[in-house]
Write a structure and sequence with these properties.
Blueprint: H1 6-11, H2 14-36, H3 46-62
Helix pairs in contact: 2-3
């Protein structure tokens, strides 16, 4: 799963963003499950990047259509 930047997310259709949000959330839960079970994640920085990407999508979803100020 690729990490998306804000520009890429803005170009996506809202339905596609929602699909990506659900997919990233599932992946984050899986990674956290591995970590909680005492296992070492394959890529330790992956959890941080997943959280940031999820936050980017949620931020775009809550912004008005016109963009920023």
């Amino acid at each position: 799963m690729a990490i998306y930047r804000s520009e890429e997310l803005r170009k996506m259709e809202p339905e596609k963003r929602q699909e990506k949000l659900a997919e990233l959330t599932r992946e984050l839960l899986r990674e956290r499950g591995i970590q909680a079970a005492g296992g070492a994640p394959d890529n330790p920085g992956r959890i941080r990047e997943l959280r940031r990407t999820i936050a980017r999508i949620q931020t775009l979803e809550h912004q008005p259509e016109g963009g920023g100020p």
